[in-house]
Amino acid sequence: MGATVTRAPRQINRTYEWIRLRAHALKRKASPLNLRKAFESDPHRAEDMSVRTEHVFFDYSRQLATDKTMDLLFGLADAAGLKAKIEAMFNGEKINVTEGRAVLHTALRQQDNTPVYVDGENVIPQVREVLEKIKTFSNEVLGGERTGVTDRKIKNIVAIGIGGSYLGPQFLSEACAAYAKEGMDLRFVANVDGHDFKTVTKNLDPAETLFVLESKTFTTAETMKNARTAKAWMRERLGDSPEVVKKHFVAASTATEKVKAFGIDTDNMFGFWDWVGGRYSATSAVGMLPLALYIGYDRATEILEGACWMDQHFRHTPFSRNIPVLSALIDIWNINFLGIRTRALLPYSQALDKLPAHTQQVEMESNGKGTDLWGRVVRYFTGEVVFGQAGTNGQHSFYQLIHQGMKVAADFIGVINPQYQVGEKTAEEVDHHQELSSNVLAQPDALAFGKSEVEVINELVSQNKLSPEAIAGLSPHKVFTGNRPSSVMLIEELTPFTAGALLAWTEHRAAVKGFIWGINSFDQWGVELGKQLGVKIRNLFFRSNADSTFRVDAARDDLNPSTETMTNAFISGELPR
Ligand code: F6P
User: Fold this and answer.
1) Residue 365 designated active-site
2) Residue 5's CB: how many other CB atoms inside 10 A?
3) Collapsed DSSP state (helix, strand, coil) of residue 506
4) DSSP letters along 178-217, please?
């Protein structure tokens, strides 16, 4: 156990503040909050339950919460010692207790020179050194001074990584694609399915391609398999010399020796540190290296500025106006007290289409835990199911369920000015962005205020098309109960800066929940068992590769009969018959 864990406190669900929230929720259950009435009775609700800042606007007035709810939630945050826990994170305390590590992704984007210490060493100079190295390298590649082995300019960047070494950078890359340097392309290979590698490298000219291997540990099975395949792919096309690897492979990693063993010159390795968690690594070399090669170093650093802006807002703003804290408290209200354990993240921006996938990892890998920091079983829900997709596509897919099926909390993101102006604004026509935005403005109201049966009947009667019997038959199906919670986040424009701010919002929101639940949001032991069992099966495949008559035997190979049958199907290439 690390320095921050001392005496086990009462679990959060045993505190007075939690119990008060439960009582409040029970009262609300008996007399549910009606959002229509809440808005009618309080003309200040929209203003009171929204936060205006220089860079983002956050409106949570359509959540199933009142002032009282928020006060109780702030009380819960205090009972959990949230303020001190946030400070401990920023100050480099080893709050990742199961791995004995600090959690300092915020140091990666700190804009001033305030020292941040880990084990007595100020990490800021190391951070700056790597950034300088990325700057030089990316400028040389983009300027054509650093070329491929045949002296052709590098135009294609293929980032190979998975999980945190993929989802964050991919989100940033799509969000910032409008700022890509002329002629530069950035692609990602993550899945170990050969299909991914084949599709991504199809039509790529190897002479103009640079692989960026992204792996904190440089041992992740999928990434290393794809990296070896990339090396073979490159060598087949450009020759077997060590120069090919030297000029066409670089790495973002913490594992210097392993990177060297792969054949990558350490000059071409961009380091980071064990105090950067995988899913929190998008602002380390893992994200900054590919992004600098794609949009240029200067624009890439705007991501850091945006993330730092959100970090400062998070660290210094009172909870009542603190966007990551408010979002997290509302999540806790929904998850633990209202039983709404699924959240849809719905950005109305195609360029933010990958934010839900990144958020899904940050939330579900961080907070899907069964024990608290002291190893005690938690008997309250931690984590939530996060899913989503860019609007309006989701509207034609899963919104039916959100509007009339199970209750899901929705987070809308609206972008006021588009990256691309497409279409014209006239008195008869809206442009594409107005069409898109009319939806992000309408959907939260549809969820919150719904449509009653009386309204449905009046509407059908006014259309004068159906008989009274038909109206009576149809009307229940057309009712929207409303009172479905949502929040709206607005940004003025999607830029590297605001993409960085959204990234940091996501990270801090997950961390706040973990702090309150008393769990470790920075480890991920839950991914280990599957990996271990995978190794066992892989070894059986090795044996079948060496001996074509080899078949798995459940008793001999210590497998269950179900896995025996299915593994033999893969070995023989035929379905079990
Ligand atoms: O999915 C498990 C995980 O450990 C993530 O936390 C991590 O981001 C990912 O695998 C990749 O790890 P690495 O960067 O070491 O290849």
Assistant:
1) yes
2) 15
3) helix
4) GG--TT-EEEEE--SSHHHHHHHHTT--GGGEEEEEE-SS
Element (H, E) at 94: none
Q: How far is the CA of 214 from the centre of ligand 1 (A)?
A: 10
Best CA proximity match to 80, nearest among 515, 489, 439, 431: 515
CA of 91 to the centre of ligand 1 (A): 24
Q: How far is the CA of 487 from the centre of ligand 1 (A)?
A: 30
Say how many Å lie between the CA of residue 242 and the centre of ligand 1.
28
Whole-angstrom Cα distance, residue 266 to residue 246?
A: 10
396 is catalytic: yes
Output the six-digit token pair for 341.
Answer: 């354990």
What gap in Å lies between CA 343 and CA 406, rounded to an integer? 11
If you take atom 1 of ligand 1, which residue's CA is the nearest one? Answer: 163
pLDDT of residue 7: 81
Question: What are the φ/ψ torsions at residue 249 (nearest 5 degrees)?
Answer: -135, 130
Alpha carbon distance 158, 118 (integer Å): 33
Q: What is the pLDDT of residues 10-31, one digit of tens each?
A: 999 999 999 999 999 999 999 9
Domains and CATH numbers, the chain: 2-93+317-419+430-449+485-519 (3.40.50.10490), 107-303 (3.40.50.10490), 526-572 (no CATH)
Catalytic residue among 222, 365, 507, 564: 365
Which segments in the chain show pLDDT lower than 50?
Answer: 1-3
Summarised one tens digit per residue, pLDDT across range 120-174 is: 999 999 999 999 999 999 999 999 999 999 999 999 999 999 999 999 999 999 9
- Residue 2 is predicted with a pLDDT of 47
Integer Cα distance of 546 and 67 in angstroms: 68
- Tell me the one-letter amino acid at 20: R
Tell me the H-state helices in 239-354. Answer: 242-248, 256-262, 285-295, 297-316, 323-332
Q: Report which DSSP code applies to 348.
A: E
Q: Could you give the C-alpha distances from 154 to 159, 206, 417, in angstroms and in order? A: 14, 9, 33
Closest-lying ligand 1 atom to the alpha carbon of residue 223: 16
- The catalytic position among 37, 396, 465, 477 is 396
CA of 159 to the centre of ligand 1 (A): 14
**For the CA of 217, the nearest atom of ligand 1:** 15
Contact 466, 485 (CB under 8 A): no
Beta-ladder partners of 375: none
Pocket test for ligand 1, best of 160, 165, 253 (most atoms within 8 A of CB): 165
Closest ligand 1 atom to residue 165 Cα is 14
Ligand 1 closest atom vs CA 365: 6
CA distances from residue 306 to 106, 301, 471, 491, 499 in whole angstroms, order as listed: 11, 9, 53, 12, 7
Active site residue 531: yes
Pocket of ligand 1 (CB under 6 A): 162-165, 215-217, 220, 223, 278-279, 365, 524, 527
CA gap 284, 281 in Å, rounded: 5
